[in-house]
Amino acid sequence: MTLDTLPPLTRAEIVSVDWTALAPDEAKRLQALGLDAGARVAIAHRGVFGGKDPIAVLIGRMTVALRRVHARAMTVREL
């Protein structure tokens, strides 16, 4: 399952990230925010526009807004 398909408020752990699917500067930014393998996350809510962007992701005590394409590059498993 990828992060973009995770149901809201379901806790999960990032298993892997397909860094090749992201631009190098985007990958660095996500890693700096702690969105890497082993991080525990949950979807707080999704955007209301057509593509449901952005996705608000809870990671630790932070809420980070991600584009759906970035969340799709992250494989997660439910906890």
Structural shape: globular
Return the domain count. 1
CATH third-tier fold name: SH3 type barrels
Radius of gyration, taken over Cα atoms and rounded to an integer in Å: 11 Å
Count all strands and give the number. Answer: 5
Q: Give the SSE order as H and E letters.
A: EHEEEHE
State the assembly state of the protein chains: single chain
What is the CATH homology-level superfamily? Ferrous iron transport protein A (FeoA)
**Strands of the largest sheet, in order across it?**
4-3-2-1-5
Described by strand count, sense and barrel closure, the largest sheet is: 5 strands, antiparallel
The fraction of residues assigned to DSSP E strands is 35-45%
CATH architecture: Roll
Count of helical stretches: 2
Low-confidence segments: none
Rounded mean pLDDT is 90
The CATH C-level class name = Mainly Beta
SS-based structural class?
alpha+beta
Helix content: 10-25%
> Separation of termini?
12 Å
Explain what the structure shows:
The structure is a single chain. The protein has one domain: Ferrous iron transport protein A (FeoA) (SH3 type barrels), CATH 2.30.30.90. Helices cover 18% and strands 35% of the residues. The protein has two helices and five strands. The protein has helices at 24-32, 68-72, and strands spanning 12-17, 40-46, 55-59, 62-66, 74-78.
What's the quick description here?
The chain is globular and about 30 Å long.
